[in-house]
Amino acid sequence: xSNATPQAARSKLTTVSGVRVASPPGTVLGMLVADLNHFLDxxxxxxxxxxxxxxxxxxxxxAATAGDxxxxxxxxxxxxxxxxxxxCPGRMIVLRTExxxxxxxQCSVCDDEGVISNWEDSAFDLRRxxxxxxxxxxxxxxxxxxxxxxxxxxxxxxxxxxLVFRIxxxxxxxxxxxxxxxxxxxxxxxxxxxxxxxxxxxxxxxxAAFDALSTAAQTPDG
Length: 222
Ligand SMILES: [Zn+2]
Description:
This protein is α+β, with helices and mostly antiparallel strands. It is built from six helices and nine strands, in the order αββαβββββααββαα. It has two domains: 112 residues, no CATH class; 81 residues, no CATH class.
């Protein structure tokens, strides 16, 4: 490149509008390319940022495998970015096509995006293993804090985990389609965990989630 003209060098800079684009390892032009295997089984002394990224990516895998394949949809998962120390208000749009192809994700507001490979059959793969009969579902609207509390539940079985990670973003709220049986089961999990939660603040969040779900269960479509 020693014989590149100054003009060529200048036009190269202007294509990125004078902004220096940092490309940390694992990113291609700002896109985060991740192999899920690299984020599993992190040790206790893994630095916080790496652990938070692992949590973010595993939640994306859970959402993408809990929801339908073939179409991109906006999950209730919040964006991880904090431009100017303010949380980006965006939500994760996820797209899963088929096993063997990476899961794609992008923020609904900022330009954060990436792909995740080797998600198949991981602990976060929530795809149904068998066909189930379609039951009537009703859509319920729940506050964002409740959706976050539900994602933090420790004792969920796979069916309930799938319910929680299928929650979609909708006009600043989270929205969830559930059958009455699903909802009752989820409420049971929340109640059990609230009873066993020693931390008072977490218990209050769970109690609020319990109340919101119980209200929603009584007034579907409201
Ligand atoms: Zn964002």
